[in-house]
Design a protein that fits this description.
The chain is an alpha/beta fold. It has six helices and 13 strands. Bound molecules: ribulose-5-phosphate (5RP). Ribulose-5-phosphate binds next to helix 2 and helix 4.
Length: 230
């Protein structure tokens, strides 16, 4: 689920700043969401000006936007290497752990972001928190939703099936699965929770991204701050 808020100007600053650092010949992971969209549009303009890159989309949405922007695309299973991935986040903690999946794209995003030699996160300041505390999206096989719900409660979480907004019934991901938004309160040990969620049978992927971000570009009113792991 998306958290409303965050200025579009700040998102744009972050997205364009990250896109500006893409170099000729790069294969670029294209994240999903409104902030990553600014990076994709910026890459499209750079391609028009002669930059030679190819993108690997993380969702139908980012693929469609890349096509519209004129960024050449390659399939994830056809590339040997991803040089850099640029992707948004729903929350970023002080130690650069992330919650992603507001757009239900976190499964493909995690594959692409983790495969990239450099994973660059782009956010506006509304996403920055000292400690993660929003609900974690968990993509589940449809038939496993009841058993996964039970296992999540055993881990201390409260799962809610994500409902679609312009369709009756649940959100169905690009992979044909469902999403449980799981409330855990303050997440003081994201690494342990990430392992717990990943080992539940029927979980396809969860939205905790721990020790993956190489840089976080935060668009601010007066420029962009680049945060790196300590
Ligand atoms: C999609 C995501 C997005 O990157 C995340 O929701 C941030 O989106 P936005 O930049 O629109 O706030 O994880 O699954």
């Amino acid at each position: 689920m998306k958290t409303p808020g965050g200025s579009d100007a700040a998102k744009r600053r972050a997205g364009e700043h990250a896109a500006d650092r893409v170099t000729d010949g790069d294969t670029v992971g294209l994240g999903t969401g409104s902030t990553a969209a600014h990076a994709i549009r910026s890459l499209g303009r750079a391609v028009d000006d002669g930059l030679d890159v190819r993108g690997v989309a993380t969702s139908y949405a980012s693929r469609d936007l890349a096509r519209e922007a004129g960024v050449p695309l390659a399939d994830l299973d056809a590339v040997e290497r991803i040089d850099v991935a640029i992707d948004g986040a729903d929350q970023v903690s002080d130690d650069l752990a992330l919650i992603k999946g507001g757009g239900a794209a976190h499964a493909r995003e995690k594959v692409v972001d983790a495969a990239a030699a450099r994973f660059v996160v782009v956010v506006d300041p509304s996403k920055e928190v000292p400690v993660l505390d929003r609900s974690i999206p968990v993509e589940v096989l449809p038939d496993a939703r009841t058993t996964v719900r039970r296992a999540i409660r055993e881990l201390g979480g409260t799962p809610t099936l994500r409902a679609a907004e312009r369709k009756d019934g649940p959100v169905v991901t690009d992979n044909g699965n469902l999403v449980l938004d799981c409330e855990f309160g303050t997440i003081s040990d994201p690494g342990t929770l990430a392992t717990g969620l990943a080992t539940i049978p029927g979980v396809v992927e969860h939205g905790l991204f721990v020790d993956l971000a190489d840089e976080v570009h935060v668009g601010r009113a007066d420029g962009v701050t680049v945060r790196t792991p300590e």
